[in-house]
Amino acid sequence: MSTTPAEKPLRADAARNRARLLEVAAASFAEDGDTPLEAIAQRAGVGIGTLYRHFPERGALVEAAYRQEVTALCDAAPALLEADRPAVESLREWMGRYVRYAAAKRGMGAALRAAAGSDSSLFAETRERIIGAIEVLLAAGRADGTVRPDVDGEQVMLAMGGVWNVPDSDRWAERVRGLLDLVVDGLRYGAPANPT
Question: What digits encode the pLDDT tens for the residues 31-60?
């Protein structure tokens, strides 16, 4: 019984370490998909043994970091709608977050494909979750009249797919944001609150 109080702080520390590792891994992989695990552990302020206790091999860390990015992106959709502003502006802000997700996914590239495997349902699940998040934002936009009523989440996802064709450069994020602004402007065109 005396070990129970000591376990709670360790579990909390372990949870913080894991969360920090995932945060650092996502940022590191966005910059360089080949970042050494030792560098990630060091940036997270933990030993390599701690990293391996949570993620026994590189693929596990890559997939967990990717899943975290997807979750953060998708969970942001309803939270952004709580702000007192037109839904289309929440959609625009969400698309800004999509840029971060896209950067992380591009950086993970081959490592993510290798970790997930060719028969993995990870990418199909991710696609469905992102379409669901877009649908939440579109429904709010249709309700307040700031988004045209004749589009669905899958169409928007396809339009957003253009970000994967933007060539790597030091202006990549800026160019992707510009592309996504065009998508948002297209969604506003002809909306009841934005007749043109």
Answer: 887 889 999 999 999 999 999 999 999 989
